[in-house]
C-alpha cells in the first residue's frame, strides 16, 4: 500500500477519509474500540429476578400487618416507640414527660365497679391511734375492688402514735397474702393547723369551740383533697376513722343512686341506762324558714351549728327521720351534709366546690360544702333509713353518772357479801349447837339405858318418917321402877327442850345482829352515795 508518511517523519500518514474523524480536538490514538457489546447493560439471571420480587412482596405485607396492629392496639407501647414518643395512644402529639387524660371518661356512674371507676378514699386523722385497728378491720371487709380504691390520709396536730400505727397497718394490709386485700395508690400527708381544741368529747362538741374548729377542719379537708385527687378518679369518699359499724357494701350502696353528693344516716349506740341508741350526725338537714330568718340576723362571719340551743333552727334533720324498718333506698333532698360518711363525684370538686373555711351562707366545712354544692346545681341527697353507727364516746355527764352507778354497785355487792357472811355464820353456829345437842342427847339416852340399883323400900323411911309396911302388893317394885324410868325420861326431855330453846335464842340473836349491821350499812350508804340510798334500803329490807 502507498505510504502517507511525511518526509523525515516516523509517523504514518492518516488516510484522507479519516481526517475528519479526528478533527474534534481530542488526541489521536489507536485505543478506540467500537465493539457493540461494550456499552450494553448487564442482564440479571432469572433466579435473581424471582428473589427480588419475593422480597418486595414480603416487605409490603409486613408493612400492612404493622399498620393494622397499630390500629388494632392503639395503647401498645410500640406505637409510642415507632413515633419516637411524639404520639399518644390516641394519635395526638405527646412528649415523654407529658400525660394526657380524657376527663369525659371519669364522670362517675351508677355501676362504677363494673366500669372500673377509681375511688379516692380520704381520711383526716388526729390522735386516732386508738381507732386505727377498728378502721382497718372495716377496710379489709369492703366489697368494692380494692385495687380501684386509692387511700389518702392527713395526719395533723397529733400527740400520740397515729403516724406510726398508720404506717404499720398500711404495710400489713399491702403485704397481705390475699391478692384482693392490697389497695391502689396510698398517700400519707402531714400538716399541722394549730388546732388547740382537745380531742375529748366535751371539748370537741362544746358550742364555744364549734366555729373555729369547723373552719380548721375545712382547711384540713381541702389540703388533703387538693394533694390526693388525680385526673383518673371518678369518686371521692370521705370517711371518719371512728365509725364503729357500717355495711361492707356501703360504696356500692351509695354509688347505685348515681347522685352528685350522697350521705347515709348516722346514729350511735348508747348504754341501756341512756336509752340504747341516739342520733349522732345532726349536720345533715333540710333548710327551714326559721333558719333563713336567723341567718339574716347574724354577723357576716357567724357560723350556724346544729344541735345547740343557741341556734334554734327548727330544721328537719335526717337523723330524726330514721325508721329501722323503712326502705334503705329512700332518698331525701337535703341542704347541709355531715362529714362522717360522704360519697361525692369527683367532678363536683373539679368544678370548684370545696369545704369553705369561712362563713358561706352562715355555714362552714361540710354544711357549707352541701350549701355550695346546691348553689352550683348539684344534687345533694340523704338516705334516712340507711344507717351506719358511730363509736360511742361518753361525755363528762355520762362519766359522772357511770361513776355514781359504779359506787352503787360496789355498795350493793358489799352489802350482799356481808349478808352472806352473816347467814353463813348463823348456819355454822346453829350447826355447832345441833351437834352438841345430839351428843348430849346421846349421852342422856345412854345414861337412861343403864340399870339403876333397886333400893330396899321396906327399910326406906317414908316422907312422914314412918317405915313402909312390910306386906306390899305384888308389882309395887315394878311400879317404882317404871316411875323412876319415867322421871329420867322427863328429865331428858326437859334438857332437850332447854337446849333447843337455847339454840333458837342464839339463832334469833344472830339474826338481830345481822339486821343491825344491815341497818347500819343502809345509814352509811347515803353518806357515801346519796343516789344509792333507796336501793340499799330495799336490799337491807
From TrEMBL:
Its main location: Golgi. Residues 410-541 are annotated as: Disordered. It comes from Fusarium oxysporum f. sp. raphani 54005. GO terms for biological process: cell wall mannoprotein biosynthetic process; protein N-linked glycosylation. The keyword Manganese does not apply. Belongs to the ANP1/MMN9/VAN1 family. It is found in: Golgi apparatus membrane. This is Mannan polymerase II complex ANP1 subunit. The chain crosses the membrane at residues 54-73. Residues 469-481 have a biased composition (Polar residues). Residues 410-443, 453-462, 497-518 have a biased composition (Basic and acidic residues). The keyword ATP-binding does not apply. The lineage of its organism: Eukaryota, Fungi, Dikarya, Ascomycota, Pezizomycotina. Keywords: Golgi apparatus, Membrane, Signal-anchor, Transmembrane, Transmembrane helix. GO terms for molecular function: alpha-1,6-mannosyltransferase activity. GO terms for cellular component: mannan polymerase complex.
Amino acid at each position: 500500500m502507498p505510504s502517507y508518511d511525511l518526509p523525515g517523519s516516523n509517523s504514518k500518514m492518516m488516510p484522507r477519509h479519516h481526517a475528519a474523524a479526528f478533527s474534534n480536538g481530542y488526541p489521536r490514538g489507536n485505543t478506540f474500540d467500537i465493539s457493540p457489546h461494550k456499552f450494553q447493560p448487564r442482564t440479571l439471571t432469572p433466579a435473581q429476578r424471582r428473589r427480588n420480587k419475593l422480597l418486595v412482596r414480603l416487605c409490603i405485607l409486613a408493612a400492612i400487618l404493622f399498620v393494622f396492629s397499630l390500629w388494632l392496639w392503639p395503647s401498645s407501647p410500640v406505637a409510642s416507640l415507632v413515633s419516637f414518643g411524639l404520639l399518644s395512644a390516641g394519635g395526638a402529639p405527646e412528649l415523654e414527660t407529658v400525660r394526657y387524660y380524657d376527663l369525659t371518661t371519669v364522670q362517675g356512674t351508677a355501676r362504677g365497679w363494673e366500669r372500673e371507676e377509681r375511688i379516692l378514699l380520704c381520711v383526716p386523722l388526729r390522735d386516732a391511734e386508738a381507732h386505727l385497728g377498728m378502721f382497718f378491720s372495716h377496710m379489709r371487709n369492703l366489697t368494692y375492688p380494692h385495687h380501684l380504691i386509692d387511700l389518702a390520709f392527713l395526719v395533723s396536730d397529733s400527740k400520740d402514735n397515729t403516724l406510726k400505727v398508720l404506717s404499720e397497718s398500711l404495710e400489713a394490709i399491702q403485704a397481705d397474702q390475699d391478692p384482693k386485700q392490697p389497695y391502689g395508690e396510698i398517700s400519707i400527708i402531714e400538716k399541722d393547723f394549730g388546732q388547740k381544741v382537745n380531742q375529748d368529747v366535751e371539748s370537741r362538741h362544746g358550742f364555744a369551740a364549734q366555729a373555729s374548729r369547723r373552719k380548721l377542719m375545712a382547711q384540713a379537708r381541702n389540703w388533703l383533697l387538693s394533694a390526693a385527687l388525680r385526673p383518673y378518679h371518678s369518686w371521692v369518699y370521705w370517711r371518719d376513722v371512728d365509725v364503729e359499724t357500717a355495711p361492707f357494701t356501703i360504696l356500692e350502696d351509695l354509688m347505685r343512686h348515681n347522685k352528685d353528693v350522697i350521705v347515709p344516716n348516722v346514729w350511735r349506740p348508747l348504754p341501756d341506762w341512756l336509752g340504747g341508741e341516739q342520733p349522732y350526725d345532726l349536720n345533715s338537714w333540710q333548710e327551714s324558714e326559721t333558719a333563713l330568718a336567723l341567718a339574716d340576723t347574724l354577723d357576716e362571719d357567724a357560723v350556724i351549728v346544729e344541735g345547740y340551743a343557741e341556734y334554734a333552727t327548727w330544721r328537719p334533720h335526717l337523723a330524726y327521720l330514721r325508721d329501722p324498718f323503712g326502705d334503705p333506698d329512700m332518698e331525701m333532698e337535703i341542704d347541709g351534709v355531715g362529714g362522717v360518711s360522704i360519697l361525692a363525684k369527683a367532678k363536683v370538686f373539679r368544678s370548684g366546690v370545696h369545704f369553705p373555711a369561712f362563713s358561706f351562707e352562715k355555714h362552714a366545712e361540710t354544711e357549707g360544702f352541701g350549701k355550695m354544692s346546691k348553689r352550683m346545681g348539684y344534687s345533694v341527697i340523704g338516705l334516712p333509713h340507711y344507717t351506719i353507727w358511730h363509736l360511742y364516746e361518753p361525755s363528762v355527764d355520762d362519766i359522772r353518772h357511770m361513776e355514781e352507778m359504779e359506787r352503787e354497785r360496789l355498795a350493793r355487792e358489799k352489802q350482799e357479801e356481808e349478808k352472806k357472811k352473816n347467814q353463813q355464820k348463823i348456819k355454822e353456829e346453829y350447826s355447832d349447837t345441833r351437834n352438841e345437842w345430839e351428843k348430849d342427847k346421846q349421852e342422856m339416852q345412854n345414861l337412861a339405858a343403864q340399870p339403876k340399883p333397886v333400893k330396899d323400900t321396906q327399910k326406906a323411911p317414908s316422907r312422914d318418917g314412918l317405915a313402909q309396911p312390910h306386906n306390899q302388893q305384888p308389882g309395887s317394885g315394878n311400879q317404882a321402877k317404871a316411875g323412876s324410868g319415867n322421871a329420867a325420861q322427863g328429865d331428858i326431855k326437859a334438857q332437850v327442850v332447854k337446849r333447843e330453846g337455847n339454840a333458837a335464842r342464839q339463832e334469833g340473836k344472830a339474826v338481830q345482829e345481822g339486821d343491825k349491821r344491815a341497818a347500819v350499812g343502809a345509814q352509811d350508804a347515803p353518806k357515801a352515795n346519796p343516789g344509792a340510798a333507796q336501793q340499799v334500803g330495799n336490799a337491807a329490807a
